[in-house]
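Reply to dn_fold:

You asked what the input looked like. This is it:
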Amino acid sequence: MKRFIKRIPCVRILNALILRAATLLAPVVPDTVLRRIPVVGQFRLRLPNSQEVCLKTDGYDRVANEVYGDGIDGFEKSTMRLFLQLLEQVGTFLDIGAGTGIYSLIAAVDDGQREIYSFEPVPRVRARFETNVKLNGLSNIRVFPNALSDRDGEIDLYVPAGPVPMLSSTLQGFREASEVLRVQGVTVDAFVADHDIPSVDLMKIDTEATEHQVLQGAVKTIQRDAPVIICEVLRGRTEQSLHSVMDDLGYRYFWISSEGLVEKERIAGDEASRELNYLFLPKGKAQEILQKTENLLQGIGSRRVPP
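and this is what came back:
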């Protein structure tokens, strides 16, 4: 019965009625309550350059629910603002652990000439991503089912329960898993070579405590291209391993905080587990990039546009 009740807001007709009632009650109902209402159907997300991303959701995609309510600022606000500024200098983007694809979709719509290679190994998560790629008519995103790692070959992926399991990991025991999928692992270096990618400008890595393995498999690409890297850091999980890979590659480390970029000599995950991402900048490009992102916390307007 509890599961049935939870599904009620995700039934499309009922969802429309609930959202309509919520709109009318907005002056008296707390935002914290309103934001817990999922959205079902299609809506358009406006980017700062007035481009729009169309998103289709059945109510179970947490990212879609968050950006429906608060626009671009609804999901990973500080990282998203930084990402939008970094895109100005990005021709090729690797989105590793893409989930339902919000970063890839934004990057693709922002510039139709940009090349995006996205990786999401969980089939039911990837299917939602691919639906929105088609919905937006995007030809500059290629979505791959691989799990990026430090080796090529088959690898176990531990998948939590739920319609949209966004916390899947190749690290056994990281989360309680309801199923184990055998997926094809690949290194960034092998992928870049196999697909004749001439240069990588930006990598975003969110693989649930295996980011250091992804980077270990990307060393040749990093040495060749010195890409900007956005990397999730979970406290007490990967910090030392990240240093083991990155320290010899000539990078500076910045925590992406709600107050802006904070340079760190030692990588340390957020104690509060709120701001999870770091920016790794190649030392030769760091000053130029920092100058271009100095207005990180200034208003980047975004809003939801109804269908």
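The CA atoms of residues 121 and 238 lie 21 Å apart.
Hope that clears it up.
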